[in-house]
Structure formats: structure tokens, C-alpha cells
């Protein structure tokens, strides 16, 4: 009997799923697996015999039983497969219906790329979104509330159905009730309140598909950036931390070893693109902006802009322009991250990457724009004058040409949520978010140290 070494938990569970699928008709083996299964805490797992080397089912069973009795200890009830032998023997659900779940808090391109990959594993994607209470119980309170996160998920172009208040650890019964054969998850391990892998039951049942986690971006990293906002912002807040500089130093120290960068490839941008050309008679609407910390205020504005025509082009300003406009540590998300968030939205047809600050005549003519829209956050807002710097003239109206042409339209977003609203939530609860940030930063460091290559879907 040959030993197989697994470098990561992901490869361990993937192989285990294949084994169970192979042995699903053996009640004897299933009974052993139900009662004796443990993933060790080390980075290497020596668990499975080389089943190709057995010439009969009986020999496989005997060797496997001996191996487990020697090597493994009983697992906790939470991690066991159901006692019903039919639990995994006859998978139910449509194989083209894929289920994935998540918190989807402070959504970024990593979330959207995960959703895109999950959709690519089938034809119809059901997305479960956890409630505020479920997230708080398993990993601490979210920044965005559940209604905001439900809206964000529904606005994504790859999502076909949303399940609200989804359980943190999905079950086979849940998949069956949704008529989904498989769940999809990234190659990073997600742990529930009991310390178990959230997807363990589905993995052992052969009903979980793994895709590549998007490296270089995470909610944890965004929270870290927000915790490092300028000193004058932090000093407005009354917290147990007496010195903003001391607090900032703590955040900086925590982030050491986890400073990753989003590496955007042309292939990924192509996968996000709609590849949709406007028709000659389309009413083309143009709106531009920062779209930092993509939130429901952005979504409502994009939805209303799209309703004015039938083809929506969104201009996303580059990082340098945004910093000149807003100053401080803005933007929080870099240009590529913001672009891919916008491209993921179902109301958007095309994006201009690094759009100019001024909506010029050349831009309007070159893209055959019929309506130019400005959203709630006005470019000419006088309150932002003190933040602006560099070459941006606060007295110049970037929409002068569109107003002269009579194609300018201003819309008020129904939502009162803004990027500043999200920042204020972090500021108001910075001690709690910092404690959570420290825990998840270490988890990310562990992931990067133990990850193995997986091809992006």
C-alpha cells in the first residue's frame, strides 16, 4: 500500500471527495468514513492508500479499514457524513445549477471573480448571502448590512438567483432543495464557529467544486486600508486607542507579511468584458466617477442612468486623478479593482478605463454619446475644494460641453449610501474591526504560505 502526501487541505479534500465517489456503493466503507475521519493540523496529510493497486473491492476495504484504524481518530459530530447510506450514493440536483455562498461584504473584484468562476462551472448560478447574525456568529459583524449585501449580489451580471439568510455551512439538504448538484468554493479554507471547514460535508460527498481564489485583494486588506486613513480623520473619534499614530503603527505592524497586489491580466479583463457593441440606433448614456468601495449607492445610480437609454458606458477615473480630486488616501481600491467591480454590474455595457476628468466634445462624438449623466456625488461639490490638489481646477465645470449640447442630465440616487458612509462605519467601530482585522490577516498569511497552483476558470 502506497502513502499519498497532500500539501494542502484543498488537495486533501478534493482527493477524499473522489475516493468517496468511487466507494459510494460500499456501505462498509461509508460506515468507516463516517466514524473515522480527521484532518491533521499540519500542512501535510498522509491519508489515502493508492487504490489503483488493489485487484478487488474486498482487498481495498480490508486495507483501508486497517489504515484508518491505525492512523485516524473519530471526528466530531459536526464533521460527520449523515448516517443515511443514501446521503451521498445518489447525488440529486441539476449538474448545471451551481450554488455558492458568501458574506459579500465590501465587495471587490475578488468577490466578483469568484462569482464569475462559479458561474463558469455550470449554466445557472444560485448565490447564498449570509445574514448579519450568521456572519457575526461565525466571524464578527460585517461592514455592510444584509439588505445592502443582498442588493449587491442581485446586481451582479453572473448571478441568476439569490438565497437570502443562507447558512454559513451549506448542507446536502440545502443543495437538494435548490436543485443544485454542486456547490462551488475558492481554494481557501472557510472555517465556521465550530472550527470546521464550512464545505466539509459537501466535499466528502463529492458535491463541491473548487476554483482559484483571486490573489492580491480581500475584504481584510480593504479594512486595513480604511484603518489607516489620515490622522485628522481618526482623531475625530473617541476610542480606547489614545493616539492615532500609535493605532496606525499597530495596523502597519499587522499588515507586515501580507502586502499583496492585485495582478490584473488581460485574460481576466476579457472574461469580465461584455463584448457587446452598441447598435447604430442605441441611445448611449455616459456616466463617470470614482466608484470606490463599490456599494448600493453606485448601483442605484447606474440603474437609473441605464434607464435613460439602452446602452450604458461608464468612465472610471484613474488613481492619480481620484487622488487629486479627493486627496488623502483615496482611492481605497486601485483602478483595475474599481473597473472590474463596475464591469460586473448588470446595468453596465462598457467601461472606459482611466476616463478623463472633463467630458470633452471628442469623448462625446467618439462614443456617439446621447446623454451625459452626473450622479449624486457632484464633481463640482464645493466641500471637496480643500481636498483637491494638482492640476484639477475646482472652478472648471467638467460638464460644460454636455450642458451646451443640451445632453446633460443629473440624477439623484435613491440610496443615501456613499463611499464616505462606508468609511464612517469603520471609523465609528475601529477597535472592533481592528481586532477582526488582526485575526483574518493571519489567516490570509497562512493561506499564501500553503497554497498550491490552481488554474483560474
Plain-language structure description:
This protein is of the alpha/beta class and 457 residues long. The chain has 3 domains: 3-79, no CATH class; 91-211, Rossmann fold; 266-417, 3-Layer(aba) Sandwich (Rossmann fold). It is 40% helix and 14% strand. Helix 2 runs parallel beside helix 3 (57-71) and helix 10 packs across helix 20 (430-450). The radius of gyration is 25 Å and the shape is globular. Residues 1-6, 34-54, 67-89 and 230-243 have low confidence and may be disordered.
Give the domain tally: 3
Overall geometry: globular
Extract low-pLDDT stretches.
1-6, 34-54, 67-89, 230-243
Counting H and I runs of at least 4 residues, what is the number of helices? 20
Strand order of the largest sheet: 5-4-3-6-7
CATH topology of the largest domain: Rossmann fold
Overall pLDDT level: 77
Major β-sheet profile: 5 strands, parallel
Beta content: 5-15%
Q: Considering the protein shown, what is the CATH homologous superfamily of the largest domain?
A: HUPs
State the separation between the terminal residues, measured CA to CA: 35 Å
Global structural class: alpha/beta
Percent helix: 40-55%
CATH architecture label name of the largest domain: 3-Layer(aba) Sandwich
CATH class membership of the largest domain: Alpha Beta
Radius of gyration computed on alpha carbons? 25 Å
Instruction: Give a count of the beta strands, DSSP E runs of length 2 or more.
Output: 12
Amino acid at each position: 500500500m502506497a502513502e499519498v502526501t497532500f500539501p494542502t487541505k484543498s488537495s486533501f479534500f478534493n482527493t477524499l471527495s473522489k475516493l468517496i465517489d468511487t466507494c459510494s456503493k460500499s456501505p462498509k466503507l461509508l460506515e468507516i468514513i463516517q466514524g473515522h475521519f480527521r484532518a491533521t493540523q499540519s500542512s501535510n496529510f498522509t491519508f489515502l492508500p493508492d487504490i489503483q493497486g488493489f485487484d478487488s473491492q474486498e482487498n481495498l476495504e480490508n486495507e483501508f479499514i486497517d489504515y484508518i484504524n491505525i492512523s485516524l481518530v473519530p471526528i466530531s459530530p459536526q464533521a460527520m457524513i449523515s448516517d443515511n447510506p443514501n446521503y451521498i450514493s445518489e447525488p440529486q440536483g441539476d449538474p448545471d445549477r451551481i450554488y455558492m455562498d458568501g458574506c459579500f461584504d465590501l465587495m471587490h473584484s475578488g468577490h466578483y471573480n469568484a462569482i464569475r468562476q462559479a458561474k463558469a462551472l455550470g449554466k445557472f448560478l444560485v448565490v447564498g448571502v449570509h445574514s448579519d447574525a450568521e456572519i457575526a456568529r461565525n466571524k464578527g459583524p460585517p461592514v455592510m448590512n444584509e439588505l445592502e449585501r443582498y442588493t449587491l449580489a442581485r446586481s451582479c451580471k453572473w448571478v441568476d438567483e439569490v438565497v437570502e439568510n443562507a447558512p454559513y455551512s451549506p448542507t446536502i439538504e440545502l443543495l437538494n432543495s435548490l436543485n443544485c448538484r454542486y456547490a462551488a468554493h475558492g481554494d481557501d479554507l472557510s472555517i465556521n464557529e465550530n472550527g470546521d471547514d464550512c464545505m466539509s460535508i459537501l466535499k466528502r460527498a463529492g458535491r463541491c467544486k473548487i476554483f482559484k481564489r483571486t490573489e492580491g485583494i480581500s475584504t481584510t486588506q480593504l479594512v486595513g486600508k480604511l484603518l489607516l486613513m489620515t490622522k485628522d480623520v481618526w482623531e475625530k473619534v473617541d476610542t480606547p486607542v489614545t493616539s492615532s499614530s500609535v493605532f496606525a503603527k499597530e495596523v502597519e505592524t499587522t499588515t507586515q507579511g501580507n502586502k499583496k497586489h492585485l495582478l490584473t491580466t488581460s485574460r481576466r479583463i476579457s472574461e469580465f468584458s461584455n463584448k457587446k457593441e452598441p447598435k447604430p440606433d442605441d441611445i448611449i448614456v455616459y456616466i463617470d466617477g470614482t466608484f470606490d468601495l463599490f456599494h448600493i449607492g453606485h448601483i442605484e445610480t447606474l440603474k437609473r442612468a441605464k434607464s435613460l437609454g439602452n446602452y450604458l458606458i461608464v468612465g472610471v477615473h484613474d488613481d492619480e486623478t481620484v487622488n487629486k480630486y479627493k486627496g488623502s488616501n483615496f482611492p481605497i481600491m486601485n483602478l483595475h479593482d474599481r473597473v472590474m467591480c463596475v464591469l460586473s454590474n448588470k446595468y453596465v455595457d462598457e467601461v472606459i478605463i482611466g476616463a478623463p476628468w472633463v467630458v470633452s466634445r471628442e469623448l462625446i462624438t467618439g462614443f456617439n454619446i446621447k446623454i451625459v449623466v452626473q450622479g449624486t456625488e457632484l464633481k463640482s461639490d464645493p466641500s471637496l475644494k480643500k481636498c483637491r490638489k494638482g492640476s484639477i481646477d475646482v472652478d472648471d465645470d467638467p460638464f460644460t460641453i454636455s450642458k451646451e449640447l443640451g445632453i446633460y442630465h443629473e440624477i439623484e440616487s435613491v440610496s443615501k449610501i456613499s463611499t464616505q458612509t462606508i468609511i464612517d462605519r469603520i471609523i465609528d467601530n475601529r477597535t472592533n474591526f481592528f481586532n477582526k482585522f488582526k485575526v483574518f490577516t493571519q489567516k490570509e498569511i497562512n493561506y499564501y504560505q500553503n497554497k498550491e497552483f490552481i488554474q483560474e476558470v
